[in-house]
Amino acid sequence: MASVLNTVPSLRLSNFNNTNRVRTRQVFTPNPVSFTRRRLTIRATETDANEVKPEPPDNAPAAAGSSFNQLLGIKGAAQETNIWKIRLQLTKPVTWPPLVWGVVCGAAASGNFHWNVEDVAKSIVCMMMSGPFLTGYTQTLNDWYDREIDAINEPYRPIPSGAISENEVITQIWLLLLGGLGLAGLLDVWAGHDFPIVFYLALGGSLLSYIYSAPPLKLKQNGWIGNFALGASYISLPWWAGQALFGTLTPDIIVLTTLYSIAGLGIAIVNDFKSIEGDRELGLQSLPVAFGEETAKWICVGAIDITQISVAGYLLGAGKPYYALALLALIIPQVIFQFQYFLKDPVKYDVKYQASAQPFLVLGLLVTALATSH
């Protein structure tokens, strides 16, 4: 635990100013932006007169940007000055539902969840741990270490724009991390575990989040490793927490959910398309940068579809044909939305695609969980 807790204090504003300085382009104003409470300062540097200048990001918020998008932490957000709304934006609430759903799947797979007050209360606390606290910690930490990329791709985001100070960001990271680990420990005591498995799952997930975003490992620099780590965090870890809370986490479930995380890898690739320019500028080998947009699109949908078809085949082989057919039926609309939105333009239609297709994927997770519980 000390290895995780000793890492966050090392964040310093000096790292932003003195190391890995962003070579920004003239799409930014050359005047410094100053703030009172040790706010971040973004300055444009000199650019070669012959250098090709990119267009401003299409998703830059206008004066009439959406307040709803701001609260969800997605693009098209309105600029906000309320510090609590900014803090919520950094946690990206739009990313919480898959983790919450993962807990539901784990509880269902345990076969020991009952619709009584105590079990419902335990599941809600586990969802709070997985979603607002530890996912919020992950997203805030990721935004902190992505501040240089965001200064290129999304300069209006809270950290590169200076809407929130260094100390406020670091405080938020600490509070969310410690709050999530505290809830994990509480769940182990509540469940009467001899071994604090939920706490160690939370600690392992927190460490994975740190090495995903932070140097020197910064797993997200490699498109394959980083996206699989992200997929595992969104599918495997909350499932394991929910199942361990109400039952026993078995080796076959660990293997099945780890393989299912390949679909999560595909989901993670969707988010890489909007960051191509910044990733290329800073040398990050996301799959759209490494393989080009056209190839990366097909890797993305292939990882999502082939994984689910393989799991359906596993369920069929395990003598559960109705669950296998239900899972196959849920794959069909995903494929339709892939052709309708994502494969046409993964940048323009990323939000529409995820909103349309992902509900069917998460329902497929629940079908798989119910199948393994019987």
Automatic annotation (TrEMBL):
The biological process GO terms on file are: chlorophyll biosynthetic process
Q: Where is this region: Disordered?
A: 45-64
Q: Which UniProt keywords apply?
A: Chlorophyll biosynthesis, Chloroplast, Membrane, Plastid, Transferase, Transit peptide, Transmembrane, Transmembrane helix
Write down the CDD domains for this protein, in alphabetical order: PT_UbiA_chlorophyll
Q: Name one Pfam family in it.
A: UbiA
State the source organism's domain of life.
Answer: Eukaryota
Q: How does it sit in the membrane?
A: Multi-pass membrane protein
Q: Name one GO molecular function term.
A: chlorophyll synthetase activity
Under catalytic activity, the entry for this protein gives: phytyl diphosphate + chlorophyllide a + H(+) = chlorophyll a + diphosphate
Q: Which family does it belong to?
A: Belongs to the UbiA prenyltransferase family. Chlorophyll synthase subfamily.
**What is the protein name stated in its UniProt record?**
Chlorophyll synthase, chloroplastic
Q: Which organism is it from?
A: Castanea mollissima (Chinese chestnut)
Question: What taxonomic classification does the UniProt entry list for its organism?
Answer: Eukaryota, Viridiplantae, Streptophyta, Embryophyta, Tracheophyta
